[in-house]
Amino acid sequence: MEIIKLKPAYSEKLWGGSKLKELGFDIPNGKKIGEAWTISAHENGMSYLSEGKFAGLSLKEVFDNHRESFGNYTGMYPMLTKIITANDYLSVQVHPDDEYALKKHNELGKPESWYILDCPENAQLIYGHNAKSKDELSTMIENGQWDKLLKNVDIKKGDFLFVDAGKIHAITPGVTVIELQRSSDVTYRLYDYDRLEADGKPRRLDLEDSINCTTVPDSDDVIVRNANKEVFNSDFFSIYILDATIENTFKISESASWLQLSVVDGSGTINGIDFKTGESAITMNGIEDIKVTGNLKVYISWIRK
Ligand code: ZN
Which contiguous run of DSSP H or E holds residue 82? Predict the structure, then answer.
């Protein structure tokens, strides 16, 4: 097993800021950066291998041309990891499932998940809705009854939320998450607080697609408080949080071909290699136990074989 660090792509956003600097990211000065795409093989923001014999190549290039190093996985790179720091409200949005996204955009659907790295006291996220039927959903959207329609949920640092395709959601100011999602960039915006683009025009909304894709009635909440160790398993991705101050070894319990490693707190070593907050890596050529020292917290993710 090799562990290869990656260089992220940065994404400028209206609601971005400079907080990623505090998490160790070398972001360009003077830009409102909202997202670091830390493990990505998506065209809209590619990660690059920063070491090993493929140093300088994109994750997509290496994945597509060296399937033998990834258990001969077929299909496009399935996951996308981002660190998101919100300086303002993100648009209220919903994502399609595979069926809708493949048909309309030739992209995968976009279930996603958030692990809260930082948030203000008494923070809330928008997570789900109160409409009982599609008609009621359309009416509430048309009439701008956002307070009535949108559900809020209290969050604290260390909480985990799964945001299935079809679930309305939004991140709020001051919140930092590591987001693991299916590799897709299809977002339908249903409300944007009436903000304008830099050119003064209202921001694009996707009301029809939003209504089509929203699960009604709302899907069940999937929230894990104080997430640690085995956090989440699904067909889209699985997550384990290894906290070196609690335990020092991770043994995978299901069959997978490679791991994604993201250090979300502290510093120390992973299988003898120095790591610090903000750094991410993938494994290639098999999976071995992950052994850590120091005080770091590693967010480990993979897709089931
Ligand atoms: Zn989203």
Answer: strand 79-85
